[in-house]
From TrEMBL:
Protein name from the UniProt record: adenosine deaminase
Organism the protein comes from: Lactobacillus johnsonii (strain FI9785)
GO CC, alphabetical: cytosol
Residues annotated as domain Adenosine deaminase: 1-181
GO molecular function: adenosine deaminase activity; metal ion binding
Protein family (similarity comment): Belongs to the metallo-dependent hydrolases superfamily. Adenosine and AMP deaminases family.
Length: 188
C-alpha cells in the first residue's frame, strides 16, 4: 500500500467489512513510515488514511439500514527497527498534529528481541510531553520483563502481553491497575 488510492481503498474496505460484522468501534494501527516508497510522505500517508475514514463516514451516513454506526480511529506505529530514529520522531510529531483528526495514540510495533523497549524512551518522553497516549507491544517474543519495562516507560496499554501468564506478579499488577492488554491468542 504505497499510493493514495491503495490506502483509501484499504481503509474504506476494512471499515465497511467491520461494520458489516456489527462492530461499533475499532482502531486501525499502521506505520506511516512504511508507506513512503512511492512518493508519499509520512504526513501524506496520515492525511490519506484520515481521508479514507471521512469517506467511510460519509458513506455510512448515506446508508438506510438499521446498523449501528461504526466509529474508527487511527494509531500511528513507531517501528522497532534499527536506524529509524528520524522516522519514529516524525511519527510522534504527526500524532500530535493530527490528534483532532482521528489519531488517538502511538504504538511501538515490530519484533521485540533485537531492540529493547527502553531504547525508545526518548520517543515516549516526547509523547508524554505532547499528551499523546501510547501502547507498547511487549510480552510476546520477550517475557514479562519486557512488559515491566513497557510499564516503567509509562504505557497504559500493552499489545500482545501473552507471556504475562508466566508471572503471577505481572498478572496481579495488570489486574490491580486495570491495565489494558490487547491479545487475541490467549491459551484455552
Amino acid at each position: 500500500m504505497q499510493t493514495k488510492k491503495d490506502l483509501v481503498v484499504a481503509i474504506f474496505d476494512l471499515l465497511k467489512s467491520l461494520r458489516s460484522q456489527g462492530l461499533v468501534y475499532t482502531e486501525i494501527r499502521f506505520a506511516p513510515q512504511l508507506h513512503t516508497q512511492k512518493n508519499l510522505t509520512q504526513e501524506g500517508a496520515v492525511r490519506v488514511c484520515t481521508a479514507g475514514l471521512e469517506k467511510f463516514y460519509k458513506w455510512q451516513d448515506e446508508q438506510q439500514d438499521n446498523s449501528y454506526p461504526l466509529h474508527a480511529n487511527l494509531i500511528l506505529c513507531l517501528m522497532r527497527l534499527p536506524n529509524r530514529e528520524h522516522e519514529n520522531s516524525l511519527t510522534v510529531r504527526l500524532a500530535a498534529k493530527y490528534d483532532q483528526y482521528h489519531v488517538v495514540e502511538i504504538d511501538l510495533a515490530g519484533p521485540e528481541g533485537p531492540i529493547p523497549n527502553r531504547a525508545f524512551s526518548p520517543f515516549f518522553k516526547d509523547a508524554k510531553a505532547l499528551h499523546i497516549p501510547f501502547v507498547i507491544h511487549a510480552g510476546e517474543a520477550a517475557g514479562p520483563d519486557s512488559m515491566q519495562e513497557a510499564l516503567d516507560l509509562g504505557t497504559k496499554r500493552i499489545g500482545h502481553g501473552i507471556r504475562c501468564l508466566e508471572s503471577n506478579k505481572m498478572v496481579k499488577y495488570l489486574v490491580d491497575h486495570n491495565m489494558t492488554v490487547s491479545n487475541t491468542n490467549l491459551p484455552k
